[in-house]
């Protein structure tokens, strides 16, 4: 059982650990939880690759981390997850530039945007949060495989959310062509897809020593709320507090803790296909609004159908 919990920070998770020699690839590494995860891991000697869609923001992130960790080993790579062309190019570039990835943290995300589409015509939240990461992970898998074989390597962490409680995936209407678009319904579906992707990865790659985890980081005030007005955010917090009167925002260092824990915890060695929150593996729970993972998000048959649909939509096939 983890000694960590809701208030633990990423630095506390890594206390006493040495990540030198490890290469960590973090999508959405320029902002919020991805940036803090990169900073905390760089401070422990990891070679950190920050991926983002805007080089100027990546440069700012590098300066911010170097301000705190002057000898940080950092690299950046541009990748717009809302464009398969960009994902394919980033995948090819990563394979040229890097020898291996020990820890892949699929952290980037967009929440509750208005109805929008990716360059390839996918609904934006499923397209960015799941399909973009699906295609990118396929490209990066040779590097992740190259990273296996040493202790503390071979992990993939997919940022999900308690928002997955909102809805299962809809394999018949992934792009909201038949269903009326609702920003949070779309977010919930995409975050369920992140967990099902984790289940599918574990099934395919566990025997190669690659284990995958989905993470709910907590509620943290980052740029993720950019599509919500202040009133909408307040109303959301009120709704959450109806179910959980003790609800409190986490700080960004606390919010980055669970993905850092899922990527590095020794007690998770050899395990995978699991959903984590507050630095522990969550219980399956189909009723609580305050925690746990829904059965539908771990359903292996649905995970297989989503995998097949994702391959068909992206044109990317895992060998
Ligand atoms: N904060 C929370 O309360 C919370 C709760 C549950 C789950 N999560 C999950 O945690 C993860 C990190 O979120 P955060 O809170 O740190 O939010 P954030 O500060 O908004 O960071 C999100 C990151 O994703 C990037 N991104 C968005 N669209 C992209 C695209 N098309 N291509 C490449 N990168 C893209 C953003 O890049 P730009 O800076 O260029 O936009 C940014 O770097 C997300 O997956 C989110 O769903 C967060």
Describe this structure as you would to a colleague.
- This protein has 10 helices and 8 strands.
- The chain has 319 residues and is an alpha/beta fold.
- It has one domain (10-310): 3-Layer(aba) Sandwich (Rossmann fold), CATH 3.40.50.
- It has an 8-stranded mixed beta sheet with strand order 3-2-1-4-5-6-7-8, sandwiched between helices.
- Helix 2 (32-43) packs across helix 3 (55-68).
- The protein is globular and about 50 Å long.
- The mean pLDDT is 97.
- Residues 28, 30-34, 52-54, 57, 79-82, 107-111, 128, 159, 161, 216-217, 219-220, 222-224 line the site of NADP nicotinamide-adenine-dinucleotide phosphate.
What attributes does this structure have?
319 residues, alpha/beta, Rossmann fold, eight-stranded mixed beta sheet, 8 strands, globular, binds NADP nicotinamide-adenine-dinucleotide phosphate
Topology:
Blueprint: H1 10-14, E1 23-27, H2 32-43, E2 47-52, H3 55-68, E3 73-78, H4 84-97, E4 103-106, H5 124-147, E5 155-159, H6 183-205, E6 211-216, H7 230-243, H8 252-255, H9 257-264, E7 274-277, E8 280-281, H10 300-314
Parallel strand pairs: 1-2, 1-4, 2-3, 4-5, 5-6, 6-7
Antiparallel strand pairs: 7-8
Helix pairs in contact: 2-3, 4-5, 5-6, 5-10, 6-10
NADP nicotinamide-adenine-dinucleotide phosphate binds at residues 28, 30-34, 52-54, 57, 79-82, 107-111, 128, 159, 161, 216-217, 219-220, 222-224.
